[in-house]
Write a structure and sequence with these properties.
The chain has 318 residues and is mainly beta. It has one helix at residues 290-317; strands at residues 7-11, 15-20, 23-29, 43-47, 69-76, 79-81, 86-88, 92-94, 101-113, 116-126, 132-144, 150-161, 167-170, 184-188, 197-199, 216-222, 229-236, 246-250, 256-260, 267-269, 274-285. The strands form four sheets. It has an eight-stranded antiparallel beta sheet, with helices on one face. A hairpin with a 5-residue loop joins strand 18 (246-250) and strand 19. It is globular.
């Protein structure tokens, strides 16, 4: 299905594949077939720049439960919707029968609107023991930025607690592991981004940004083969409850990044409540100066504004 501004897409029954200018930039798999121990959940992979350079890895041998760019929560009460072993206070990591799955239910919207590709679907979160704990409406939009060298995903998750009990959402850090507060919209970069540059607001850089609060974070890496540089920027929506979030990021032994709204303090999730979070992911060709990072961050913020305007109106209609 083709659209204006060079965006096209198709649905193969398990994933929607999005192209810009005829080149595939990403695929969002809404019907994953992962093993239960990897907490099956939808996600984006591959991710590519407009120049065709790869920006993600899928099932890396060191953490097979890392899946490109995906909404993943390791400490959802006693349940694990991240995959892999669970960290327990005083016991380190251990494999437990608690790897839940985020199961696609129904496509609510898919198509092109004002030059943006929009996809929305409903999901049911099911624990490994079979308990239905969350109903989620997930929506994202993809668009090309006016600079011609970058594109953006604007992502929203609206989770409703249907478990019948209050739940606390945390991280390994809230369980006692220092500076390991991962959980949320998590990006695992390609192998050749290992040793790349982490960049933050006000000129801050490096892994010391892990655990620091900020409205956005960026990563610059260099690709094998082409030698090209690429920039990834993630932006937190100012309307998110934990804004500005703490960030989880690494450059060694692998590249990763993500806003971590449950990094250092558990967040109560009351039965019947809805928790909404929005983020943008900007993929850009080339290196980035501070001025360019400001521009890319602004594009990510504008994409969030457009997405929120649509989903807020849709929520009012419902």
């Amino acid at each position: 299905m083709s659209g204006i501004n060079g965006i096209s897409w198709n649905n193969d029954g398990k994933a929607v594949i999005i192209r810009i200018g005829g080149a595939e930039v990403t695929s969002y798999t809404f019907l994953p077939d992962d093993a239960q121990r990897e907490s099956p959940r939808p996600g984006f992979h591959p991710l590519r720049t407009l120049a065709g350079d790869s920006l993600s890895v899928f099932r890396p041998h060191d953490h097979t439960w890392h899946k490109g760019l995906a909404w993943s929560l390791p400490h959802f009460g006693d349940e694990n919707f991240w995959g892999g072993p669970s960290y327990r206070r005083g016991q380190d990591y251990q494999w437990l029968p608690n790897n839940g799955s985020m199961q696609h239910q129904e496509i609510l919207d898919a198509g092109l609107v004002d030059g943006r590709f929009r996809f929305s679907h409903s999901l049911a979160w099911i624990t490994q023991s079979g308990q239905h704990v969350v109903d989620e409406i997930r929506t994202f939009e993809i668009s090309e930025n006016p600079d011609g060298g970058s594109w953006v995903i604007a992502f929203e998750t609206a989770m409703t607690n249907v478990s019948g009990v209050d739940i606390r959402i945390g991280s390994p850090t809230t369980e006692g592991r220092d500076n390991a507060g991962y959980g949320g919209l998590f990006w695992r970069g390609p192998r050749d981004f290992t040793g790349g540059r982490i960049l933050g607001p006000d000129g801050a850089s490096g892994e010391e940004l892990r655990g620091r609060r900020g409205p956005w974070l960026a990563f610059v890496g260099q690709h094998d083969g082409t030698g090209n540089l690429s920039t990834v920027v993630m932006v937190d929506d100012a309307r998110n409850e934990q804004h500005p979030p703490e960030w989880f990021t690494r450059t060694e032994p692998f590249a990763c990044m993500g806003p971590a709204p449950f990094f250092s303090a558990e967040v109560p999730f009351t039965n019947g409540a809805t928790l909404t979070n929005r983020y943008s992911f900007v993929a850009a060709d080339g290196d980035s100066t501070p001025e360019r990072l400001t521009a890319l961050t602004a594009e990510g913020g504008e994409a969030l504004r457009k997405l929120a305007a649509v989903t807020i109106r849709a929520g009012a209609r419902r």
